[in-house]
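WARN retry 2 of 3 for item q-0093 after timeout on previous attempt; input resubmitted unchanged.
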Amino acid sequence: VDTALPKLILLQIEGVLELDNGIDHHLEADLIFINGGQLIVGWENDPILTNVTIVLNGIKNELRFVLPNGLENIGGKGIGVYGGLDIHGKPRDVTWTKLNTTVNAGATQIGLVEPVDWQVGELITITTTSFVVDQTEAMTIAAVSDDRRTLTLTSGLVYDHLVIRETLDNGQYYDIAAGVGLLSRSMQINFVDHFCLI
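OK item q-0093 returned
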């Protein structure tokens, strides 16, 4: 693909579809179905460094697409992979880490367990620590501290995100914390108002 693509309802790939490494790409569809073929967005030894945005529209259960076996179907707003999906963007030092301390709803700063090379304006995700999947949040970075471990966000969090550390009497311990991931990189999957990086 070396040109702009139209908005699609279904993109079904049965051969190989590779995005050109030299240009930005915007792919918008209700469903992407890789049926024995392969979607290539950069290679491990030649990652794509331009901006790639994949927008998945629609309502998850609205579009019914019957699989080739005729027995199963998948809903809309997704990528069905029955083949190969290779995504390699700009290498980053850290793509996933954890919160260092609990943050409450309304907070505009989060602490991380390790320094990151993330930049102002990039999009991150903070995973839920409840049983409600929708409490995973996507936020934009407004500032990064000098030690690269504290991020200031452009808006306050909507939900609490917990960090729990406990040491047992025998010296063993467990550590449970919300995950924090970098969504921007050079490849972003946008489920309209929910974000997921593969």
